[in-house]
Design a protein that fits this description.
Blueprint lengths: L6 E4 L13 H12 L3 E4 L2 H12 L28
Parallel strand pairs: 1-2
Amino acid sequence: MFDCLDFIFIDGDANLLPWNKRAEKFGLLFRMCKSTNKCFFSAGVGMMMLVYYCATSYNDFDVINGNGKGSNLTEIHYIDERRV
């Protein structure tokens, strides 16, 4: 049924990080749009996904610093050992 769609809108809370487990379905939809050259409009979390996937060449990474939210490089040594 995905081929029947002409245009896709991807929008969501901008505080939802692209590498978060809750954004996994957004990521799948985003990858499907990119792999089929489907026209889509992205705002909020969709725009963050565009930046994230272009910067990482569509690889998923598990962010462990800053309790999964990322942090400054100066704080990289303060990683929660339970996340590793």
